[in-house]
Amino acid sequence: MENSRQRRGSNHNGKMQKGAIYLPPEILCEILSRLPVKYILRCRSVCKEWCRLTLGPQFINLQLSRVNHQLPQLILKSDYKVDLQSLLLLDTEGCNINKIPFKKMLNTSKRLNCLRLMCSCDGLLCIAADYLIQPVIILNPITRESVPLPSPKRRAYLVSHQIGFHFDPSSGKYKVVREYRNMNSLNRDEGSSFEIITLGDSSWRKLSAPPVPIEYSSDAAVYWNGAFHWKIQERNDKSGDNCILGFNISDEKFYTISCHVRFGSSEYDLLVLGGCLSLVEHDVHLMRIWKVTGTKDEGFSLSFHCTYDTCVRWNKYLHYSVICQINADSFLLKVSREDGENGASHWFVQFFPGKALYSYLDIPGLPSRFRGVYFKPSFVSPKAASLCSS
Question: Fewer beta carbons under 10 A from the terminal one: N or C of the chain?
């Protein structure tokens, strides 16, 4: 008689084998969810039981909760036509790149060079056209699933297109918000328009926003504290005191954040640093950081945080943008150099302001020109998320 501790395991055909150790599904979920994504994908081919387990909501939520506590990776899209067939998953810690073929995921006839990575949430990417109002596509590059969002009946050629995509915990649904500006028949800028859609809905809804001018940008809306944020153009009148427009995704209401300061430079990034919504100002050789303080009930304001000497005289031919704050002592920067007819060249460096040092990241396979967004690989299904919302 077999020992009561012995259990039957399954082989590649899903049949049970004698002598194998049995592990309860919840223990298997705990073990597999701790693996890097590429190893989880390999484990799916071990047996039908493991494959079925990793497709279930319990495993997907557990793996997502773990990856949310890890340093995010970057996912890049090359600007070169020859490299458009793949997305590039970049691990800045290990300085390595994995290619993810994605052309077949998109289910669109639009040229790939017209599409841009807008933003990411829970391992789902939002991809849209720079200067067209459609298509807008939500996809998971790990599971190769994609969902195109409904297209408006009208055609519009845009001069600016910024999209925010995030999970709304109050409704349990994913929402997409976009700001865009288009030209009328007289070639006049009609100002910003805002629309929102819940993943799974059949059409976009128009939003009524405050009459503030949103800055032209190729960056996505920045998500922080339950809301999307856009930079407001600087103006000479009193309305120039407002520098950030916010939109809360739960109550779907707009608000503005006042600056009460005048920047020394028109070049600045809006991003989240150390858990705070921040403006990083670039002024020749100085990096100034301003952080948003306050609460939704009491009101938000912008307060000065610190100044760093970058030890480089930046200009229109050589400039940088802050990707993230790696730790208390360093920042990850994307440096760009204009090369005339050849366009711009991009690379990553780690900046240590306290030591006035830069460390170049030697990343094999990194294209010369690219755009990228934060990314946390997951197994969240955009199709399942759409069905839950409908």
Answer: N
